[in-house]
Design brief:
Blueprint lengths: L4 E2 L3 E4 L6 H9 L13 H18 L3 E6 L5 E8 L12 E6 L8 H15 L5 E7 L3 H9 L3 E2 L5 E2 L11 E8 H8 L5
Antiparallel strand pairs: 1-2, 2-3, 3-4, 4-5, 6-9, 7-9, 8-9
Length: about 190
C-alpha cells in the first residue's frame, strides 16, 4: 500500500484512476508549462501518471496526487522522485511539485513540499534531498528557500535532457540534508 501524508490543508495520497483527467488538464495548461519543455497531450499525461505509479511500486515513494482536505479538489502532484538522468549530483532523491494554476498563491506547494521532505528524512531515512529548476523559475526557487533548502552557484548545471540553446537549459540545484532539516525544525536555523 502506498503511503499517505496529511498536512493541515492537504492530503498527499496514492494515485487513483479519477486523477487522470485533472492531471491531464494540469499538464495541458500553458501556464504550468512555462518552465517545462512543453504542454503534454492526454496520452503523454497518462504515460507520466503510469511512470509515477511505477516509481511508487518500485521504490515505495514518489510523487503523490494532492487534494485539498476541505473540498477534495485535485491540487496537483507533489512528492519525492529519483531523476532519470545523470548529473554531478545523481543518483539522488528530488522533491518536486506541479500545482494546478487555480491553486496558485495559496502556499500549497510549500506546505506539501515540506511534508514530503519531512517524510523523506523521518520515514525513509534519507541523508539529503535536492530540488532543481530552470534558473528563471523564481516561484519554484522561492518554495525551495521557504522549505529550508540552500543554493550554491557551483551546483548549477545544464540540464542534460534539454538542448543547450533552450531558454530552460540552465538549472539551479538546491539541497537540504537531514541535519540542517532537523536544526530548522528544532528552531536552530539562522
Amino acid at each position: 500500500m502506498d503511503p499517505t501524508v496529511t498536512t493541515d490543508r492537504l492530503i498527499l495520497r496514492p494515485w487513483q484512476d479519477r486523477d487522470a483527467a485533472p492531471f491531464a488538464a494540469l499538464n495541458a495548461d500553458p501556464r504550468i508549462a512555462e518552465f517545462l519543455p512543453k504542454v503534454l497531450t492526454r496520452e503523454e499525461s497518462d504515460a507520466q501518471m503510469a511512470r509515477i505509479r511505477a516509481h511508487f511500486a518500485e521504490r515505495g515513494f514518489g510523487l503523490w496526487a494532492v487534494e485539498a482536505r476541505d473540498t477534495g479538489a485535485f491540487v496537483g502532484s507533489i512528492g519525492l522522485s529519483c531523476p532519470r538522468f545523470a548529473a554531478h549530483f545523481t543518483p539522488c532523491v528530488e522533491v518536486g511539485w506541479r500545482v494546478a494554476s487555480p491553486h496558485w498563491g495559496k502556499g500549497y506547494a510549500t506546505e506539501a513540499a515540506a511534508a514530503s521532505v519531512a517524510y523523506g528524512f523521518d520515514t525513509l531515512g534519507l541523508a539529503e534531498i535536492v530540488s532543481f529548476t530552470a534558473v528563471i523559475n523564481h516561484r519554484s526557487r522561492r518554495v525551495m528557500e521557504r522549505i529550508g533548502m540552500t543554493h550554491r552557484t557551483e551546483d548549477d548545471f545544464d540540464h542534460p535532457l534539454l538542448p543547450l540553446e533552450d531558454r530552460l537549459n540552465r538549472h539551479v540545484l538546491y539541497r537540504v540534508d537531514r541535519d540542517a532539516w532537523a536544526d530548522r525544525r528544532a528552531g536552530h536555523a539562522d
